[in-house]
Amino acid sequence: MKQNAVGRKIRYFREISGLSQMALGKLCSLWPSYISDVEHGRRIIGVEALSKICDALPLEKSLSDGLFILAGYTALDVA
After folding, report:
1. Cβ-proximal residues to 78 (8 Å cutoff; 6+ apart), any chain
2. pTM for the full model?
3. Other CB atoms within 10 A of residue 9 CB
4. What Cα–Cα distance (Å) separates residue 77 from each residue in 20, 25, 39, 47, 65?
5. What's the average model confidence in pLDDT over 34-38?
6. Rounded alpha-carbon distances, angstroms, from residue 27 to 38, 71, 74
7. How confident is the model at residue 79 (pLDDT cuts 50, 70, 90)?
8. How many angstroms separate the CA atoms of 6 and 26, rounded?
9. What mean pLDDT do residues 16-29 have?
10. Mean pLDDT score of the chain, rounded to an integer?
């Protein structure tokens, strides 16, 4: 499932950034339980939430773009 892959990547980037789900949630104004659900593939992440998470994590643009593509979003969805 696509959402599992996106969630695993978000978790990986969050963990190497040294952030807990709570800390990431505070940085991007999302509930930690929502981040947990995304990371475990229980929720499909919306483009707005993905944008907030990518902005909160110290990711290069190419990595952020890769997350959007993996989630099935195009540049038109993000704009």
Report:
1. 47, 51, 68
2. 0.89
3. 17
4. 28, 23, 21, 7, 12
5. 97
6. 16, 21, 24
7. low
8. 20
9. 97
10. 92
What is d(CA 3, CA 12) in angstroms, rounded to the nearest whole number? Answer: 14
Buried b or exposed e, range 22-37, using 16+ CB within 10 angstroms: eebbeebebeeebbbb
Question: CA–CA distance from 42 to each of 22, 23, 28, 34, 74 (Å)?
Answer: 18, 20, 19, 9, 22
pLDDT tops 90 at residue 76: no
CA distances from 66 to 6, 26, 30, 43, 59 (A): 10, 23, 21, 19, 11
